[in-house]
Amino acid sequence: MSETQVSEAEIAVHWREEEYFPPPASFIGQANASDPAIFDRFAEKNFPECFKEYADLLTWDKYWHTTLDTSNPPFWKWFVGGKLNASYNCVDRHLAKYRNKAAFIWVPEPESAQTLVITYQELYVRVNEFAALLRDFCGLKAGDRVTLHMPMVPELPIAMLACARLGVIHNQVFGGFSGTACGDRIADSGSNVLITIDAYYRNGDLLDHKAKAEDAIAAAKKNGAKVEKVLVWRRHPGTYSSKTPMVKGRDFFVDEVLADYRGKIVEPVSMPAEAPLFLMYTSGTTARPKGCQHSTGGYLSYVAGTSKYYQDIHPEDTYWCFADIGWITGHSYIVYGPLALAATSVMYEGVPTYPDAGRTWRIAERLGVNIFHTAPTTIRMLRKLGPDEPKKYNYHFKHMTTVGEPIEPDVWRWYYHSVGKDEAVIVDTWWQTENGGFLGSTLPALQAMKPGSCGPGVLGIYPVINDEKGKPVPAGSRAGNICIRNPWPGIFQTIYGAPERFVQIYYEKYCKDKNSKDWHDWPYFAGDGALQAEDGYFRIIGRVDDVINVAGHRLGTKELESATMTVEEIAEAAAVPVIDELRGRAVEIYVALKPGYKPSKEIEAKVAAAIENLIGKIARPKNVWIVPDMPKTRSGKIMRRVIAGISNFTGTGDITTLANPEVVEVIQHHVQAEKVERGDTPRKLTEQELEEIKAFGHAE
Ligand code: PRX
Ligand 1 centre from 452 Cα, in Å? Predict the structure, then answer.
């Protein structure tokens, strides 16, 4: 590995207007969208019919009669009357031309292990066999929900596509989440089958994953849900790699049961366009995660269209989206979008820098990856651990993506020059779990890149920045709340089991007339602060709703706090973000103890452990601070912005109106002295970061 170290100061950014980078001519020459006439086709005057172009990328069993039905706002219906099957569209229809082409290339984490290629033909067989098992062994049918708690192994997309084949709604929970988090999602979704695996590799260790299934089942039970069957894939078929006993009659090894289904073919069930395809839980303002319900026809059309034009996927490309399928990015841009286009999609099991900082680039070189897609947190890590690594490897990307959090222009430049070798176009794609696919991005051959800005709204998406009162903020002036004025096919249908929350969270704030059936009156509130430059490009600042974005993963402050409150000694808790060099944001937890308890390292450790057990490792706080009392308003509300200011060394703002201003100084002194001692002081923050910290907690 190189000796060169990147100092924190170099990673620090200053958000001035950045220069444009034109797309390389070599990219333009081969791009799927290189004729500017496409902008006219997707102009507002052609809405909603413009999205026919996306839907026509699919094979429909029955063509739709109505492109967009707005009769029950904001429960939009797309491609009404149409019928299709997502598994058929991602697998069967490619067989005639691409039977022997790789659908997935899976790279196990241990570098000595062989890469696994799954052709479209083999994928077809495996999806069918597993669908037969789900139908005949588990009794699952269209409309049932199934929870998956799987890591990055090919059995995950196989299981998803098998569900889709039957019209069964899959609910994949990120493998890194705890069993308890999984159990809550099992209960909320009403699943009685859990699909999991015994173990998987991460950072050189074979982790026991089946252990989490026991916690999941216990948590589901607590919420009144019974898991009847647990399907356990084995990381090494034939060998059980978990210490947790299998429960007779409930737990089954998939490789054993599958033997009964060899060669079975399951007719794809023709589903209405509006039938739900999957649920994906995400965090928000409340302690309970929301199950975002995505449709079959609208969603699949949208991810196919955006994969074609924004990811520029051609069937002959080798496309590597380095995200986890447990997040929406993986659903849309590892599985459904690329497969709908007959791409070759690379999956990697492990961490980017295992066993060293060159691993990612060795994979790219060996497989001839030419489209690379990842998140700023990964880019920062790869840069920090191996800034000079990419040039040692002979790979060439034509296209790269960044997604999930704002990317600092300086990090963007390293991505462009060092990773992309000045040859690749970059798209910075802004969107959310709720959205199905991209909302903001440059169209790669036709719009220049600008570091730190995602670009304008994508084709058929018309964003606006609103002030608090709903007045549009002119471009080139101030930041505000970014909204999308129109519906689009990829938008989620509802929050599973909570339609009123769906309306309230995403539409109520800016709805112009609740009785209106005109979509113009129902802008979608994204929950992100943003500003638009005069050129129309958007710069996303971050969440306005008390969500902390850790390494591109959304964590709700309420979720973190309620996990903290399960610790016996804790009376009050507050979670705040701290700026983190690698992960974008990290979490710090402030707690006040119940009377009679004394601060101790044990209590701090208990809080960290509770969060890890109830949510997962990614949520583990950077610090737990035990304080004598929380700073509060006179009405008793915890002032999160004050403690966020302390954690980030950005000042506490006006505290004169607090009920207990004296406590602020005590906390500040204690926390900051300790941080200085540990060498844990932040770099100079950017203006946007300062804004974010100052605004934190205002949503309450
Ligand atoms: O704050 C925005 C940030 O991530 C949030 C959505 O997170 P999640 O639902 O987990 O989906 C992540 C992957 C789509 C957004 O509200 N975000 C996402 N992409 C970007 C971004 N912030 C800045 N730039 C982006 N490209």
Answer: 13
